[in-house]
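Reply to dn_fold:

You asked what the input looked like. This is it:
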Amino acid sequence: MGHDPEIGLPVPDEAALTLRAVHRAASDLRRGTPVLIEGPQGPLVAAAAEVVGARGLAEIGAVALAPPVLLLAPVRAAAVLQRPIAAVPPGRAEGRKLEEGVAALRLSPALLEPASLRRLADPVAERLLPEMPELIPPPALAPAALALAKLGRLLPALVAAPARATAAAKLGLLRVPAADVLAYPATAATTLARVAEARVPLEDARDARIVAFRAADGGIEHLAILVGEPERLAEAGGAPLVRAHSECFTGDLLGSLRCDCGPQLRGAIRRMGEEGAGVLLYLAQEGRGIGLVNKLRAYTLQDQGLDTLDANRALGYGADERGFLVAATMLRALGIPRVRLLTNNPDKMAGLAACGIAVEGREAHRFAANGVNDKYLETKAERFGHLLR
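and this is what came back:
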């Protein structure tokens, strides 16, 4: 961070300014305020369909160069139109392909109002619509718009239109480059820094510490629970036992029977306590990266017959929205470049390895079904490829 000689105040570095702008734009979307996404093709004004109100729609209308459209993930658009809109290849890849790209729907005046937009965005909402929208080609900056909604843990459904930048400036709408939005997850992960540490004796690991990490955007913290002295083991050339655990409010805190997260969390800490050393990375990636509110929506869809993968996709999210760079950055900051990974998920092993962490072995971390989560565990094995058998 440098200093401006004219005003004598610190000037944040470029990465911090970039993250700050994207974080503010995602926050505005959550408030129902439109934002301006900029790219070589010209700016796109966008607002989140699930929260935009009459004022936000009026602001879009004031700056738009063309009638607004609704941007959706293709799988959600297919559900709205009640027909396929893209070919789906067979096999396990089907869980990924429909998550790619963006669909755009033309909005009639009857659909361009808050209640109808929420019905179009949310598969859990009442499905009655005054009329069916029409599928049209999406604008060039549509992927960045959906990515920004996901960063705000909103449903990836946006009202959007090409915009006049001068008019948007008069309304005070935030402007953010599309490239910065798309780069945000990686940029935020690489700026993670240790901000606090404390000794916290645990029931199954008395010799435990918690280290908090925060990115330059000042967003939600990620935590590392260190049992014993895994850093010394790493300094000596060893590979400490490590688990990358995504937070799960319902399973970790409430003891939900719908998943196996609670037993995995407590079982990992217990095993590290028995070994005398280990690291549990507690990552702010609720619901495989979709957030708690959307996870509750996914549970409702599961109660209607979808499995955990298809429920996430029905919301417009990918089957798994998590990234591994956050975990790798934390491990490097802790001085742990080699690990024995406590996991059943091959993607975690490959992801950490791709981010420069040497995974020297996998330790199985299986727990028996409880009569409620049986289908959930079957889906993890059959559709996500988890090693549960």
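Residues 87-98 have pLDDT under 50 and may be disordered.
Hope that clears it up.
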